[in-house]
C-alpha cells in the first residue's frame, strides 16, 4: 500500500460530512440556541406586559377564568406576572438560562394541561411548541452567545 492509498483523517464520507456540516454546526448551533431563547422571551414577556398593564383585570382573570389550583388568585397573578417579565430578561441575556426556562415551562404545562382540561379554548398546539422549546433551552443551556457561557468560560469550566 502506497502513501496515496493510506486513508488520512478528514477523508472519505466522514471527512466530507465534517467539512460541510462542521461549519454549519459551529455557526448555526449558537444562532439556533439564541433564536429559541429570543422567541420564548418575546412570547412570555408580551404576556407579562399585558398582565402588568391591566393588573386589576389580571387578578379578575385569575379569580374567575384561570382558577389555578393551590394558589389564591391574587398571589397567582403576581407570580405569573413576575415570572413572565423576569424570566424572559434572563433568557435574552443568557443568564441562569436553564433555571429561567423552568418556571416558564411550568406555566406552559399549567396552561395546556390544567386550564386546557377545564376549558378547551386553552388547549392549543402552539403550547407544545413552547414546551418543546423550553425543554430544548433547559437541556442545551444558553449556548455560546450568552452570559452563562462567558461566566463558565472565565471560570475555566467550559
Automatic annotation (TrEMBL):
<dbReference type="GO" id="GO:0005886">
    <property type="term" value="C:plasma membrane"/>
</dbReference>
<feature type="transmembrane region" description="Helical">
    <location>
        <begin position="102"/>
        <end position="122"/>
    </location>
</feature>
<feature type="transmembrane region" description="Helical">
    <location>
        <begin position="75"/>
        <end position="95"/>
    </location>
</feature>
<protein>
    <submittedName>
        <fullName>DoxX family protein</fullName>
    </submittedName>
</protein>
<dbReference type="InterPro" id="IPR051907">
    <property type="entry name" value="DoxX-like_oxidoreductase"/>
</dbReference>
<keyword id="KW-0812">Transmembrane</keyword>
<feature type="transmembrane region" description="Helical">
    <location>
        <begin position="128"/>
        <end position="147"/>
    </location>
</feature>
<keyword id="KW-1133">Transmembrane helix</keyword>
<keyword id="KW-0472">Membrane</keyword>
<dbReference type="Pfam" id="PF07681">
    <property type="entry name" value="DoxX"/>
</dbReference>
<comment type="similarity">
    <text>Belongs to the DoxX family.</text>
</comment>
<keyword id="KW-1003">Cell membrane</keyword>
<dbReference type="InterPro" id="IPR032808">
    <property type="entry name" value="DoxX"/>
</dbReference>
Amino acid at each position: 500500500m502506497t502513501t496515496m492509498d493510506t486513508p488520512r483523517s478528514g477523508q472519505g464520507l466522514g471527512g466530507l460530512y465534517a467539512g460541510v456540516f462542521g461549519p454549519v454546526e459551529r455557526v448555526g448551533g449558537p444562532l439556533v440556541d439564541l433564536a429559541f431563547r429570543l422567541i420564548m422571551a418575546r412570547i412570555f414577556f408580551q404576556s407579562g406586559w399585558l398582565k402588568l398593564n391591566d393588573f386589576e383585570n389580571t387578578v379578575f382573570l385569575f379569580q374567575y377564568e384561570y382558577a389555578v389550583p393551590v394558589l389564591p388568585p391574587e398571589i397567582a397573578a403576581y407570580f405569573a406576572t413576575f415570572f413572565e417579565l423576569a424570566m424572559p430578561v434572563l433568557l435574552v441575556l443568557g443568564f441562569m438560562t436553564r433555571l429561567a426556562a423552568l418556571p416558564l415551562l411550568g406555566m406552559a404545562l399549567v396552561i395546556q394541561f390544567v386550564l386546557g382540561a377545564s376549558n378547551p379554548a386553552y388547549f392549543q398546539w402552539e403550547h407544545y411548541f413552547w414546551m418543546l422549546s423550553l425543554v430544548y433551552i433547559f437541556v442545551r443551556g444558553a449556548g455560546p452567545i450568552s452570559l452563562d457561557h462567558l461566566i463558565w468560560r472565565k471560570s475555566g469550566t467550559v
